[in-house]
Design brief:
- Helix 12 (about 270-295) runs antiparallel to helix 14 (about 320-340) and helix 14 (about 320-340) packs antiparallel against helix 15.
- Strands 2-3-4-5-1-6 form a 6-stranded mixed sheet, with helices on both faces.
- It has helices spanning about 15-30, 45-55, 75-80, 115-125, 145-155, 175-180, 195-205, 210-215, 220-230, 230-250, 255-265, 270-295, 310-315, 320-340, 345-355; strands at about 35-40, 90, 100-105, 135-140, 165-170, 185.
- Strand 2 and strand 3 (about 100-105) form a beta hairpin.
- It is α/β, with parallel strands linked by helices.
- It folds into 3 domains: about 15-185, P-loop containing nucleotide triphosphate hydrolases (Rossmann fold, 3-Layer(aba) Sandwich); about 190-230; about 230-355, Up-down Bundle (Zinc Finger, Delta Prime, domain 3), CATH 1.20.272.
- Helices cover about 50% and strands about 10% of the residues.
Length: about 350
């Protein structure tokens, strides 16, 4: 795993500059009340937030030149950086540290509610149990309801000393401008494919060919590459969705709609589960259209879905660049429709009918 210059235990692959920023901020005593960690999913933003919390809560945080986090003090030993911990709880203390509070969106709901935010704020206002920092992390803060965002803003307008709130987001445009203006924004970028490739070989001992395939497929998102490797059903389902899209392209309308029926199970895909699943389908399809464009431009060495290279080359034969650009725009519009609460299956049907 990649190491930062000063942070010997940076927990992510890539984005080491963020770890350096944490240390410099602590050394200078320049800690903001609110941070926004922005970037695509599966980069480790929540893991980075927990790592920053671990630094702030370390018993040696105020000691000049101390290794941070020290990993030896009682606070460090209580902390966990496992993003799967306390998975069943909306608000948790990671089961170990009383000064770390984490708010997660209920997967069955579209938004984080005002009630959940009020409870979060109430706990944050209690102050530190150990007399040091208190850190609150809000995952997927771009899913705050309008009322919840307004309630949070009131807290951010009157920051308390040694209280730090970290928001992780994938789409900053969904945050209130007034929240943005009161926050320090840190941008997380996909790691270079070579870093993910080397990480998979070093940490999991897989072959170079498999590592190349998974690092390409994950688009620089180490957590996603790891999930592909460790969850065969998830990986197979991803390839199934990709393969069905490549079958849709040359098919007639009836066959396209039949494939949508196969992809979209009305019982399994009800409620927010349907929105999430169709959002994932559209993301995969967008990646495939980009690959088709790259093939058309003679840039096959850059395609994401190298594992589907032969099928991609066959699919592009009857697709011009203007048609592919139109399809990419249609997929982007489909994502907007999902956000506007349009029926997920109707979103898919509208896209395939107009291919």
């Amino acid at each position: 795993m990649q190491k930062t210059k000063n942070t010997t235990n940076w927990p992510l692959v890539g984005n080491e500059q963020v770890g350096e920023f944490f240390l410099k901020s602590v050394r200078k005593g320049n800690i903001s009340g609110t941070y926004i960690f922005s970037g695509p999913a599966d980069l480790g933003k929540t893991t980075a937030a927990k790592f920053f919390a671990k630094i702030l809560l370390c018993d040696n945080v105020n000691k000049p030149n101390a290794k941070l986090p020290c990993e030896a003090c009682p606070s460090c030993r209580k902390m966990t950086l496992n993003p799967l911990d306390s998975k069943k709880e909306k608000i948790d203390l990671s089961g170990r540290h009383g000064d770390l509070l984490i708010l997660k969106k209920d997967p069955e709901k579209k938004n984080i509610s005002i009630g959940e935010i009020r409870e979060f704020i109430k706990r944050m206002q209690m102050g530190s149990f150990l007399g040091n920092y208190k850190v609150g992390i809000i995952k997927d803060a771009d899913c705050l309801s309008t009322e919840a965002a307004s309630a949070l803003l009131k807290t951010l307008e009157e920051p308390k000393k040694k209280v730090v709130i970290i928001l992780t987001v994938t789409d900053m445009e969904k945050l209130l401008p007034t929240i943005l203006s009161r926050s320090q924004v840190l941008y997380f970028s996909p790691a270079k494919p070579g870093l993910v490739h080397d990480f998979l070989i070093k940490e999991y001992g897989i072959g170079r060919s498999a590592a190349k395939n998974l690092s390409r497929l994950a688009l620089g998102r180490p957590a996603l590459a790891r999930k592909f490797l460790q969850d065969k059903d998830f990986y197979d389902n991803y390839l199934e969705i990709a393969g069905q899209f490549l079958k849709i392209l040359p098919a007639n309308i009836n066959s396209r709609l039949a494939i949508v029926d196969k992809l979209f199970n009305s019982k399994k895909n009800s409620g927010q589960a349907g929105v999430r699943d169709v959002g994932r389908i559209l993301e995969i399809w967008q990646g495939l259209v980009r690959d088709l464009i790259l093939e058309e431009l003679g840039q096959s060495d850059l395609v994401q879905h190298e594992v589907k290279a032969d099928e991609i080359k066959a699919a592009k034969k009857n697709l011009s660049l203007p048609k592919l650009a139109k399809l990419l725009a249609s997929l982007k519009k489909g994502r907007a429709y999902l956000d506007a609460n349009v029926n997920p299956k109707l979103v898919l049907e509208e896209i395939v009918i107009n291919i």
